[in-house]
Amino acid sequence: MGAGISGLVDHEKVTSNTNGLSEIRLGDLPESCIALVLTYLDPIEICKFGRVNRTFRQASLTDVVWEPKLPENYQILVKNYHLDEESCSLTKKEIFARLCRPNHFGSSQNKAFWMEKNRGVCVCISWKEMKITGIEDRRYWSHMLSDESRFSTVAFLKQIWWVEVEGNLEFEFPAGNYSLFFRLQLGKTSKRLGRRICTVDQIHGWNIKPVQFQLSTSNGQQATAQYYFNEPGKWINYHVGDFVVDKYSSMTTKLKFSMTQIDCTHTKGGLCLDSLLILPTEIGSRK
């Protein structure tokens, strides 16, 4: 279909009858027919075809084109997370654009969600929204500004005997399969003469016992994982597990998650904690 439409775009004159009495141009095609064709394209292609002529532009703005691109529960997301005080007057294209950009929510604005082009919704939660053992004690943790974080700061673990990080989330996920990750890095990064530098001298204790991760949902789904940390200098999304949101469920999804290493036979240090990521599984597998 894409190739056929490309042919239409390349030639302003589409066809003529055998007697040459009339000539149909792209602008003569019914707007409803163009809109129907555009529903089969992805958002970037729709915007490109909207530049062909006035009729294509009007068709590319219609709700019938953009509503299939929205999550099934987009009305709940718009209402519950106050994307716009006048959301009732927004077109479906405007709602799509607002959902695709990061939308911070919660009283502290340390949580954000956005939509990928395949209608999947992603959520990111800052470390500030988690319960972390010793986080306010500067002997153990420091809070660092970072342009590598969606929330501008990361927590750096200097040294501690046991690590406990816990959190929870309630969110209206669209139906689908989701994967949950902790975003972590061994080492402390900084900029020097415009170059990224990673300091690794405080890294210790992560290759003796694995770190335990857990995920549970309010409807009984559970997942566990464990990892040794041994790749300094780069951010890694550690996969905790997957969960499923049933399309027939109208309830808010409730999650609990944790990361622990409570073996007190040795200290641990040199770890940066940024955030928790929840991604549609098909996207998470590529991460």
Automatic annotation (TrEMBL):
Transmembrane segments: none annotated. CDD domains: F-box_AtSKIP3-like. Residues 23-69 form the F-box domain. Pfam families: F-box (PF00646), PP2 (PF14299). It comes from the Eukaryota. InterPro entries: F-box-like_dom_sf, F-box_dom, PP2-like. Coiled coil: none annotated. This is F-box domain-containing protein. It comes from Anisodus tanguticus.
